[in-house]
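Memo to structure team: turn this sequence into structure tokens by end of day. - J.P.
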Amino acid sequence: MHKKKVLIISPYFAPSNAADMQRVRMSLPFYEDFGWEAEVVSVKEKYTDAVFDYLLNQSIPKNIKIHHIDALPKNWTIKIGLGSIALRSLWHYKKYVDKLLKSEHFDLIFFSTTQFPVCILGPYWKKKFGIPFIIDIQDPWFTNYYEDKPKHKRPKKYWFSYRLDKYLEPVAMKSVDGLMAVSDAYLDDLITRYPHLRDIPSATITFGAFRKDLEIAEDYKEQLKPSYDLNPEYKHIVYVGRGGFDMQWAVMLLMKGFKIGLKKENDLFEKIRFHFIGTSYAPLGSGTKTLYSVAEKLGVGKYVTEQTDRISFYESIFNLQCADALFIPGHKKPAYTASKIYPYILIEKPILAVFNPESSASSSIIDCKAGYVADILHFKSAVSTIFNFLRDVANNSMQKPKTDWKEFEKYCAKATTERQCNLFDQIVNE
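Reply from structure team:
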């Protein structure tokens, strides 16, 4: 059978531990199973400022061709306030991929990144080479979310990025041939802004669960280290992932439930310690402890540690494996999908998540019987769920999850890659 070829644009790629390259990394072993041959174009690691985990290279099949391109060095461009890898690599992407498309045949170009400005090359390559393109919406591209937020709660360079995104998004959406998203809500928002998108192929596909990552973590566990004190006197509840002001409500609910426990059963709840790890994308040592500050305001700061510095991918898995229970904070908006829930489920530790019950992450945990979900929209019931969970962890009555692995299969990387390839086929067959 003739395999079709997809060229994947992912500025960050292994060994970078950037969240936005994980979909592609976990899909690469499976594209061929569904009739597609994939090549990736990423930026050379010396031009990126991500946390690196060289063990990630162990998960990439040896037969996959990875192209590495140059970018403007950040230590030059930062002098004019330009740090974005998308903007620093844009010209180099154009130059390199132009040459590649002249010499090789590809059926589709797949932009899988949150570095959205590079997607502006999709319309250009489509016009020049006649190749359709698809964009992976892992986060909103243009968003009004921060418009009514105070300045200190807005991302750095918000003024510039807001205007750039407002200009670039409609240009890309005018000629895009397909859309993939991690949330129905992201697709709905785009269709509201650009009604013609209703008529192109699209699909909501979450990131997959990749069992090989647990095998790699096990094989190299002697090289991995915990980010918190593993004192066995305490019950350690761990979250590894980004923090931020939008996560504070979920953490507030967690701490409220904990405070009730301290008041009702102090000796028992005194055993609990919370650890939030890798919560900021800021350069090492310069992140803001947005989650610890919630605990501090509620007077329970001494039970909480927050390390803002990112850790490597497999150290993340190791830190979760060392925990007594896992915590996943979510968002009030149903569109928020924590892609990290799948490795959490694979680790088979008790899970407490705080989500909007309509989010896909909430459904995944409940459908697979993999953990407990507190309803972020209902204060009283959420705090009650949290209190009961923490009490069971503290008194050793919390059982290992009885996960429905058959139900879970549809969330595994092979199944999610098959859905990607079905979408690819739709686009190229139109």
